[in-house]
Amino acid sequence: MLDHIGLSVADYRTSKAFYDAVMPSIGAACVMTVTSEETGGAYEGAGYGVAGKPSFWIGSGDRSKGQVHIAFTAPDRAAVDAFYTAAIAAGGADNGGPGLRPHYHPNYYAAFVLDPDGHNIEAVCHTPE
Question: Which of 6, 25, 44, 53 could form a disulfide with 82 if both were Cys (CB 3.0 to 4.6 A apart)?
């Protein structure tokens, strides 16, 4: 249903460093950047995804208002654990460590962190073990 989603961040460099450190844990990476020169203004952004297609963008500008919740698919539970470890090491705040959330469904294994702007970022795996 969605092609891509983007967040405006308060400090582009800080947020880019955070996501550069976190996204490889779930098999994604920064696959595209745009500079202020390319956009003809002050906006610069980074797109994260797999196979060269950016699906999640962060960009300069006023921080997105309110807390946003974004859940990224993790290929397995070990990737959820790695996501959480990488996010905490990169300066994210704990918002729910890795574990089962059976109130969603029996195999819902997820971890939640707050990114540098306070957004609730999740990695989730839906498969058993």
Answer: 25
Cα–Cα distance for residue pair 79/109, rounded to 1 Å? 10
Q: Which of 63, 77, 45 is nearest to 115 (CA)?
A: 63
Q: Which residues make Cβ contacts (< 8 Å) with residue 82, sequence separation at least 6?
A: 25, 26
Architecture of domain 5-125 in CATH? Answer: Roll (3.10)
Q: Mark 52-64 as b/e (b = at least 16 C-beta within 10 Å).
A: eebbbbbbbbeeb
pTM of the model: 0.93
DSSP-based three-state secondary structure for 129: coil
Which amino acid type is present at position 14? Answer: T
d(CA 45, CA 9): 10
CA dist 108 and 100 (Å) reads 6
Tokens of 97: 């460590």
